[in-house]
Write a structure and sequence with these properties.
The chain has ten helices and seven strands. With about 350 residues, it is an alpha/beta fold. The chain has one domain: Rossmann fold (3-Layer(aba) Sandwich). A seven-stranded mixed β-sheet has the order 2-3-1-4-5-6-7, with helices on both faces.
């Protein structure tokens, strides 16, 4: 009797595809299809869906993301060649649904996974806390599944056709700037600053704080950084190049811009701490901040300029039925009626119990 595997059908199918790739192609011996996974997350209502649709050349209206949504993109490498596939996951709800990172980040997907973090530049007072919570949740899940995959291989040392396991520590080239001072994100990371059209109207000093801070964070994680706006075709074109680089392995272009008075375009490896400089602290005495490390110092300076909002998203979304972005008029009306009936039932039941108590 064949042994029953505990793997999901998806994991078994993926393992079979990678086994065939390792043996030199599919059944027809032709060119193999590349499959990659891209996980998008970021600020609530920050334009994630709109950016994704533009990158996929889909002319359709964007809708609020319902928790976690999946789609895919396909692209042919040339004439009469198989189309490469990009599995695309988008997390909605800002930081409130960060527990769902465990769905797209699995021992199978981590082999070809990239992460895109989209931050709303028009809301700097929610930017750091959103970035911090989402990156922490994602990194924790990446480290967890990487450890699980490595333990699974150790438990079956003689098994054939093992899929290569990506380590939780990303290896950078020896000449990568500040290689010994940074903490690379476990998988390729792209940070997109959205709604640049609104951000460019900010005071220049505030723009400089946001720009330099995000340059520091991107370099610290060995990530790429780009500012964009769906209202500016040239910026979206450059953003699409960065997206296609992660989704299909295409060239991301040679554009670089580190000028805080312009939209930032900083590919990973093109910046350095010496170019970024120290945090802009015109009115702040750094010695009073008691920072534990450089990243903590940048955080404290940023929060002095932009005090972070104490978001109540988590509490508000405990009951998704009350979230307006999931509204369904007919269903909501019926739900309200049933809630009223339940309240009346509780009141009647309470009266009945009181009557019983008086009779006894």
């Amino acid at each position: 009797m064949p042994k029953i595997s505990s793997d999901t059908l998806w994991e078994q199918a993926a393992a079979e595809v990678h086994r065939r790739e390792a043996e030199g192609g599919g059944e027809d011996g032709g060119e193999t299809v590349s499959e990659r996974t891209v996980f998008l997350m970021g600020s609530k209502a920050g334009g994630k869906t709109s950016i994704l649709l533009r990158c996929l050349d889909r002319d359709e209206p964007s809708k609020p993301t319902l928790a976690l949504e999946y789609t895919f993109g396909r692209r042919a490498r040339g004439h009469n060649t198989p189309k490469d596939i990009a599995h695309l996951w988008e997390l909605g709800g800002g930081t409130s649904l960060s527990d769902l990172v465990q769905i797209p980040i699995t021992p199978v997907s981590i082999r070809s996974l990239s992460v895109i973090l989209i931050l709303d530049l028009s809301k700097p007072n929610a930017l750091w806390v959103t970035m911090e919570k989402l990156l922490q949740a994602t990194q924790a899940q990446l480290e967890k599944v990487s450890s699980q995959a490595q333990q699974a291989q150790k438990a079956k040392p003689g098994a054939k056709h093992h899929m290569p396991v990506r380590s939780a520590a990303r290896v950078l080239p020896k000449d990568y700037p500040d290689r010994e001072l940074i903490s690379p994100f476990p998988v390729p990371l792209l940070i997109i600053g959205s709604k640049y059209d609104t951000f460019q109207e900010f005071d220049s000093d505030k723009r400089k704080v946001v720009s330099k801070t995000l340059r520091f964070v991107a370099h610290y994680y060995a990530a790429s950084l780009i500012f964009t706006s769906i209202k500016t075709e040239s910026l979206m074109s450059k953003t699409k190049s960065f997206f296609s680089h992660l989704a299909f392995g295409l060239d991301r272009g040679k554009s670089v811009s580190c000028d805080s008075s312009k939209p930032l375009i900083v590919p990973a490896g093109y910046d350095s701490f010496s170019q970024i400089g120290s945090p802009p602290t015109t009115d702040i005495d750094i010695t009073t901040l008691h920072a534990k490390n450089p990243k903590d110092l940048w955080k404290k300076v940023y929060e002095r300029v932009f005090p972070q909002e104490n978001t109540s998203e988590q509490r508000e979304l405990k009951d998704p039925a009350k979230d307006p972005q999931y509204s369904e008029p007919q269903i909501d009306a019926m739900r309200a009626q049933k809630d009223q009936e339940l309240d009346q039932y509780k009141r009647d039941a309470a009266k009945s119990w009181k009557g019983l108590e008086l009779e006894t």
